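Design job #97: recover the sequence.
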């Protein structure tokens, strides 16, 4: 006996795929621990012992950060690179 999957309308399918895609993007995104903002490409982030904060929230913290990192574009390392001629 064949099993029938529950009917899913086209708009419901589109919405489900959109939510799945947005959720996947948010899971890998870096966020500021203080304001929750996603730092822009080229912006510096400051890593402390327990948190990474953006440049706007950095003045609110005392002490020096453990590391300062530059936010890179998501395509970094996946683009075509020029190689020196052999
Ligand atoms: Zn922030």
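Job complete. Output follows.
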């Amino acid at each position: 006996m064949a099993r029938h999957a529950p009917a899913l309308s086209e708009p419901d399918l589109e919405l489900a795929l959109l939510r799945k895609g947005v959720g996947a993007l948010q899971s890998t995104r870096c966020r500021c621990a203080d304001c929750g903002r996603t730092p822009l490409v080229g912006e510096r982030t400051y890593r402390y012992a327990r948190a990474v904060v953006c440049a706007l929230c950095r003045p609110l913290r005392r002490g020096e950060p453990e590391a300062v990192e530059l936010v890179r574009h998501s395509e970094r390392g996946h683009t075509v690179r020029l190689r020196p001629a052999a």
